[in-house]
Structure formats: C-alpha cells, structure tokens
Write a structure and sequence with these properties.
β3 and β4 form a beta hairpin. The chain has 9 helices and 4 strands. It is globular. The longest helix has 17 residues. It is of the alpha+beta class. It has a single domain, classed as Beta Polymerase, domain 2. It has a 4-stranded mixed sheet, sandwiched between helices. α6 packs across α7 and α6 packs across α9. This is GrpB family protein.
Length: 179
C-alpha cells in the first residue's frame, strides 16, 4: 500500500472501539516528546486527551494529543511545519474551525494520532482537560460514557462526524456540572 492509499484508507476508517490498551500512555509520551523536540519554542504545553487518556476507557485506538500555543495566529503559523513533520489534514476542514487546528498521523491505512492545536489555557483547552479529568475521577461517569460510546459506535459505524456530534450532549452536561 502506498502513502496515498494508506491516507485514504485512514480517512475512511470506520468507527471501531477497542478495549483500553495499557500501551496508550507510552504511545502518547513518545508523541509528546517527538512534538516538543521539534516545536519546543512554540508549544506551551502538550496534553493527552480523549478516551485513550482515561484508564479503562474503550476507545478508537487513536492517540489524541492537545498542543497549547499562545494564539490562533501561532497555530496557523505552525500549520505547514506540522504537515512537514508527518501529519496530514484537510485545509477545508480546518477552515471551519475557529478554535483549533486539527491534524492526523496515520500508518498502514489506520489513524494513529490526532493533534489538536489550541490556544493554551483558552476555553477549549480548559474544556478538554476538565472532561478528561472528570472521567478519570469518577468511575460511574466513565462507565456511563463508555456505554454511550459503544452504543454510538454501533449506530454511527460509518460516520465519524455523526459519532463525534452524538457525544456532544453528554460532554456538555459533564462540563456544565463541573463548573
């Protein structure tokens, strides 16, 4: 499979959850170090977010990384350097994002990492960390979220955007109660 075929297969990859994998933190740590090695002067902080950052949580086996920058202007300035560093993205998709820039790494037709470049300590930064931390702190909440994810993965198997959007109400309710 050539790189273009691998990318297309990764883009079209269905929503498929797997049980928690104890190697996910190490995979995050390796990407954290790789990003800071290249962008140490530009990234104010790098955090592991998403379901792979919650011990015991089933997840799509994609490491979600959130990188904090000083401004969206800095995120835009890093756009091409991040692409040159092994990530891919859709310019059209990012044009619709006002609060972040999104990138993906892939290998062998599968997504391996998602990189969300956001304003450090901005609203999105705080929300993503608050949600992750709420799931880490509360096993009952984490169990409810895992059940919802399984249900949504089954009903939105071929539609990643619908899967993500369908989790929105749950995430919003957790964030509202954590304020």
């Amino acid at each position: 499979m050539n790189d273009a075929q691998s990318l297309q297969q990764a883009i079209d990859e269905p929503v498929q959850l797997v049980e928690y994998d104890s190697t996910w933190p190490a995979r995050y740590a390796a990407e954290h170090d790789r990003l800071l090695q290249r962008f140490h002067a530009d990234l104010l902080d790098v955090q592991h977010i998403g379901s792979t950052a919650v011990p015991g949580m089933p997840a799509k086996p994609i490491i979600d990384v959130m990188a904090g920058v000083a401004s969206m202007a800095m995120a835009d300035a890093l756009f091409e350097p991040i692409l040159d560093y092994g990530y891919v993205t859709s310019i059209e998709f990012n044009a619709g994002l006002s609060d972040r820039r999104w990138f993906m790494r892939h290998a062998n037709g599968r997504r391996t990492h998602h990189l969300h470049v956001v304003v450090h300590d901005g609203e999105l930064w705080q929300q993503r960390l608050a949600f992750r931390d709420a799931l880490r702190r509360d096993p009952v909440l984490a169990t409810r979220y895992a059940a919802l994810k399984r249900e949504l993965a089954a009903s939105h198997h071929e539609d990643r955007e619908a899967y993500t959007q369908a989790k929105g109400e749950f995430i919003s309710s957790v964030l509202a109660s954590s304020r």
